[in-house]
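[agent] plan:
  1. take the single chain provided in the ticket
  2. run structure prediction with default settings
  3. attach structure tokens to the ticket
  4. add a short note for the reviewer (M.T.)
[agent] executing step 1
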Amino acid sequence: MKVTEISNGKNNNHHQGTTLKSTSKTLILVSSILIILTVVHLYLPVNKNPIFTNDNSHKCDVFSGEWIPNPDAPYYNNRTCWAIHEHQNCQKYGRPDSDFMKWRWKPDGCDLPIFNPYDFLEIVRDKSLAFVGDSVGRNQMQSLICLLSRVEYPIDKSKTKDENFKHWYYVSYNFTLATFWSPFLVKSEDAGFDGPTHNGLFNVYLDEFNEKWTTQIDNFDYLSINLGHWFWRPMIYYINRQIIGCRFCGLKNVTHSSMTFGYRHAIRTAFNAINSRDKFKGITILRTFAPNHFEGGEWNTGGNCLRTKPYKKNEIALNDLNLELYMAQIEEFRRGEEMGKKRGLKYRLLGITKATLLRPDGHPSRYGHLPNANVTLYNDCVHWCLPGPIDTWNDFLLHTLKMESVRSVQEKLH
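[agent] step 2 finished; step 3 output follows
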């Protein structure tokens, strides 16, 4: 009997072990299948007339690569999309060439699909996305509206008539798209006089949250933040409400502080604001700095951007102040990300800097107004023509959201 009991025990243990192994294998197989199906679904177009095929962009750094011709572009124009800002409406105001619209980004070692509006809207169904920052961020949002216009136009659900604070709603997808104007990301104000370069002087409170956006983000699923070009302006830096330096302010007995100094502190404070919001559970996406392309002078000394083709990546490099700003941004991003992890928050980087550096041909220059218009406008080598290279930023954005969906499925399975 004892032998039998021991024998039965071994048999039972063997049977249980076999069952557990079988169950584990089954779970692994099911998990693998679910992940594969998720990836396949996200990287296959859902519309009947696909605008791209399956890709392998999840296998490489999509932000390093080269621009290649794309004769099929653009996918909208200034007659089919009402969201194009007048100053970026290069077709309307007579830009003679069109090749700047006919390029796509090719990452090294993989492919990045052209933006698919159906895929994007399915991913953000029942969700919300806010753009926070300056007019270049708004430029990207307007590009996104135009790219999505092939499926649906949003309705205006804004609670204010202020164009700097807009809420758009996609009815069929229950998707909210918003913009919050905050060019320094921190609290700032006009200093009250014109400044030495006659384009304003600003008080920038580097340690204070700009509550016009920080108090409004709690319910957003995705938060895309950006800053950069306003830090070229004259400004006075404050910490603890005390002047600690300035940039080209023209004030006596005030220490000159670098652009990078203010830039770094502003990013840090913005991330501190996000991480301090107890109710915010969304994903923060930092869109990296987009270099300008003035040649022959600065913005206010006759500089212009007249090139008609992209650079090759061996023809130009990120250097000097642009490199300083980029590195400061990355360092502060990593710091904010580590702080956010303690609260379970997610940070993602939309690294458009390298690709954008190669596109001096995509700016409005003088084609943001009528040639004989009675206005004082400088050549615009900061913003981007629509359609144009900035549309690719939304290719990157869609890729980022796809990868986030895959991560979410993997986390649930684990």
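[agent] step 4 note for reviewer: The CA atoms of residues 257 and 395 lie 37 Å apart.
[agent] ticket updated
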